[in-house]
Every structure is written in structure tokens, then in C-alpha cells.
């Protein structure tokens, strides 16, 4: 039998739990893992930031848990060094593995990595703090790990809120206390992608500015446009652009001290050169034209 319309209220629902922040969602996930693995271990990517005002969104929760931890290597473009990840997982298959979708992008080896983790029954979590529209609209991440989590204010004009997603169960756990879900997420997704492509094209001819992700694959909703600054002091550029009214962000500019000396291009090199351009839904193409013009003035001064 087929009903005239869909009537199964739980069909295709995902188990969402709303939290104060993505950090709190991550802490809850760690505690759930810890219930079955009190002496467990967490394997993290070797690119984790810290700031004096906010601490470390990823690492503070790990320290709070009291569990052991280690890092797997990332390359200069934040790509997972698959062989290193697999080697460290095989040393202890009961670890919790964290995959981070930096700036809304998905690793080029995402399918290989996640399929291998699933085949080996490894507990892994997807950090979609920047990438929840890449998950919800693009469908390119966030569905394969045991859990995933989001940060609402990274993409929407609100000040707080996170989501923990349990991919093993269906159905919402509670209502959203932070905002009504009446944003046109498809339009936000579309505008962010369009702004990224427009700005990326303008940056191609600027010497010393190298986009971290030179292609925007289908299904990816970028949080910002990250670049490597080659021939200019990143911190100076950050302050000069912001002083002229262009809201640049320098995400992951300072690594946690536990990564000192860790052999990873991401931590050792990229963290000193990365800066992020805004491409959010309030930005217009004329805004981008003005921003690029100001960038050229500063670099050529």
C-alpha cells in the first residue's frame, strides 16, 4: 500500500541535540565515547588553534576529558596524510578519531578515509563546525561518522548555539532554543559559493596570495576563503585590512603548545601564513571588488 502523502514523522529525521556551542557538543560526544572506553585515547589532526580569549575549541574538551591523545599529520593544504593516519589507528583501533572539515571543505581523500574507518569499525567523529551547510545542503560530509557536530554562529548571524548529531539514531531530541529554522539555507549556501568563486577568480593574478582550495567542488559550502600569504607579513595584512573596514579573519594563527615540534606542515608552516577572506551571505560582488582593490594597494605599497 502507498498512502496519498508521507505520514511517517520519523522518516529521514536525524538525531539532533542542541547545545550552547560546538565545543559543548564535542565535549558531550567525548563523554559518550568515554562511557565505553574509560581508558580510551583521542587521535586529532595536527592543526588545532588557540586564542587568549577563547582557548581552543577542539583541544580544551580533550584536556577536560582526561583521556590520552595523539595527532596525525596534515599537509600544507590541510590534507590528511592517509598513511600516517592509518598507521596510528592500527596501533590502537579503539581510539576516537576526529576528522575536521576546515573552512567548510572536505578532504580529497574523504571517501577513502571514512570507508576504511567504517570497514575497521573505528569510532570517528566529524567536526562540521564550519561545514554544516556542506552537510545539510551539499551532502558531502557529516553523515558517516558516529557523530558530527556544528557551530551555528559560524554561518548564521546569531551569537551562540551548537548541534550534536548522532548518526546512529533518527529523530530530533529537542527543539532549537537559539533560532527558528526559517533561514533560506539554500540561498545562503548558493551565495557563499558564488562569492567564493568570484573572489577566487580575482585573487588568481595577485602574486604572493595562494588560495588554499583552488577548486570549489560540488556540494561544498565554504565558511571563508583561506589563503597562504607568501611575501607579506600575515599579521600586518590582517590589521591593515581590518583597519580599512574589511573583516579579515586569521583562524588557527596560533597552535596549541602540544603541537610544538610536531612534524606537520600545517602546524609548522601554514599557521604562520594563513588568512581568511569573508565570503558570507551579506557580501556583494562590489564589496569584493573594493576588498581586492584595497588588498592590492597594501601589497604594492
Automatic annotation (TrEMBL):
Transmembrane segments: none annotated. Keywords: Pyridoxal phosphate. It holds the Pfam family DegT_DnrJ_EryC1. This is DegT/DnrJ/EryC1/StrS aminotransferase family protein. Belongs to the DegT/DnrJ/EryC1 family. It comes from the Bacteria. The keyword Transport does not apply. PANTHER family: TRANSAMINASE, UDP-2-ACETAMIDO-2-DEOXY-3-OXO-D-GLUCURONATE AMINOTRANSFERASE.
